[in-house]
User: Which sequence fits this backbone?
């Protein structure tokens, strides 16, 4: 089956939709779905909080009978397994009789991988796989990382001065960045299932790791502390080593917010997939560095690990995003 | 006299020409000059190494008799004083009988300020002053800073990891940045009259502070060390405190290259006008910070001092330029 520029555009829109569920769909992936016929969008879906309804279910409900003969764009292979929680998407799609199904990437779960598209193909529905696959893997990286590496996708956030400090010498860090950067950082919290700080940061700042944005308070992620914290609030989780993030229940996306030793321990363990750097146009000089010792012995070993994927101005500050290169 | 968009464009070109002399014209300003008639560029000039010929002199020599009736764009008011080293530009312009003279900014030297344009006006030549003045002040900031503040314009260069380190813990700094960033840093050396490092850096690295770019070796700036250095090479200069940069002979533009304590002492003294940050996509963690203690007691005091004026990718690295906001 041929796919063209129109398919790439519609898949890009489905990928945008997939981001609406980010941080709230675990253990399910945050999928996006778009149903299109003759250039008219008949349905738009994204995985709902808690993982149900699925994106396809939501989009099919909108399209109704008009889905017959339409093109269905879905960012991940429709599910093939039975669940007590809702319909099996591959079956629901077959019932809707679309003319094509366009899939960005296969399911990472080996138990169901290819079963969804095989089932569609067996039903005579043409299926295309792989369009915008790289972007799709990035858009649903949390789920894919958990399935493929057995742990959440880890974003390390740092709010830095130009000279790489997160606080002045006495520990004061309010504020390095301005209003817009801080609002963006809160939005980023809403895009993660859990948020982690070190025990030192938890003791010093006793941070309320919630989303302080109007209308998004209910999207606050699960707080987690690394290390020993005797005054741990009741709803917090606690882990004693970085690798234990693998055991956090229902976490696809994990945001690590500091401090310097926690950042270093995740970096040293190779457990950071993305750097989110908020950078203020200030020089602190002799302040507290953002990253403690990571055991680097040769400068050459630091190179080639990070790739700049985005940057933007947030007021006076800059946001830079680096993804692990490998 | 009215000036229009064409004038702004021609002045922008004259400002580009002014940059060709940067770092080699002190104690003269690095001026640019463009002579235009009926849309044809008849002469292009910039202050030559050592300060003579002046930009106007060079451009007038190219234009010859055709300068009569032309527009002369010059980034700084033509000189009015007599010199044994060459002609007085305001008189040379009057002789050439242009139809207009367009000036970006006045001379900062109070002894000659306004005399150049007054002389042109007295001779019946219309003069416009102030077009692209802000850019002109930036393009010739070295000379203007020396005249107005009694010291060179100081650029602080730092080559940093994402977490603000200039070396790993053992001091190794070769290399933080890649080939293209390092080549750019050498080009920046050629754009400064002098280059300064601290005594510690001089001892540790014994840096050859020359321009290591093919064809530009003769543009190496005057090396200066801050502090005591018993093995000072013969052609180096030495100062014992940051304020002594005011006494450096014939330096409009000064590049400060480190290390961390030297950077801090210039920052703390309020003697840095521009930050040139080369940033590599690496994390060092627990390395040597780029800026030592600057005596900052309140985080709020760090804000509002720097304004981002440029940024670009240099291979994998980023160059960011911040100018002092005030």
Assistant:
């Amino acid at each position: 089956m041929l796919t063209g520029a129109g398919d790439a555009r519609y898949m890009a829109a489905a990928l945008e939709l997939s981001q609406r569920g980010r941080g709230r769909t675990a253990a399910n992936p945050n999928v996006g779905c778009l149903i299109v016929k003759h250039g008219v969008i008949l349905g738009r879906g994204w995985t709902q909080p808690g993982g149900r309804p699925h994106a396809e279910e939501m989009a099919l409900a909108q399209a109704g009978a008009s889905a017959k003969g339409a093109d269905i764009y879905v960012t991940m292979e429709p599910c093939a397994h039975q669940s007590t929680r809702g319909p099996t998407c591959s079956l629901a799609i077959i019932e809707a009789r679309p003319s094509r199904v366009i899939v960005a990437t296969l399911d990472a779960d080996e138990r169901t991988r290819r079963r969804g598209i095989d089932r569609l193909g067996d039903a005579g529905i043409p299926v295309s796989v792989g369009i915008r696959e790289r972007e799709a893997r990035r858009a649903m990286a949390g789920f894919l990382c958990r399935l493929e590496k057995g742990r959440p996708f880890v974003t390390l956030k740092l709010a830095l001065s130009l000279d790489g400090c997160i606080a002045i010498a006495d520990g004061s860090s309010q504020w390095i960045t301005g209003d817009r950067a801080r609002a963006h950082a809160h939005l980023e919290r809403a895009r993660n299932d859990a948020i982690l700080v070190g025990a030192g940061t938890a003791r010093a700042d006793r941070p309320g790791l919630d989303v302080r944005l109007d209308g998004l308070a209910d999207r606050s992620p699960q707080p987690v502390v690394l290390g020993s914290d005797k005054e741990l609030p009741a709803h917090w989780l606690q882990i004693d080593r970085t690798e234990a993030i693998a055991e956090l229940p229902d976490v696809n996306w994990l945001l690590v917010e500091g401090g310097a030793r926690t950042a270093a321990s995740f970096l040293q363990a190779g457990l950071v997939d993305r750097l989110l750097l908020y950078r203020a146009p200030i020089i602190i000089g002799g302040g507290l560095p953002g990253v403690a010792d990571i055991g680097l012995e040769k400068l050459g070993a630091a190179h080639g690990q990070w790739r700049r994927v985005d940057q933007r101005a947030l007021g006076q500050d800059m946001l830079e995003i680096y993804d692990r290169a490998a």
In short: The mean pLDDT of chain B is 94. Chain B touches chain A through 50 residues (CB under 8 Å). The longest strand of chain B covers residues 306-314. The first helix of chain B runs from residue 5 to 18.
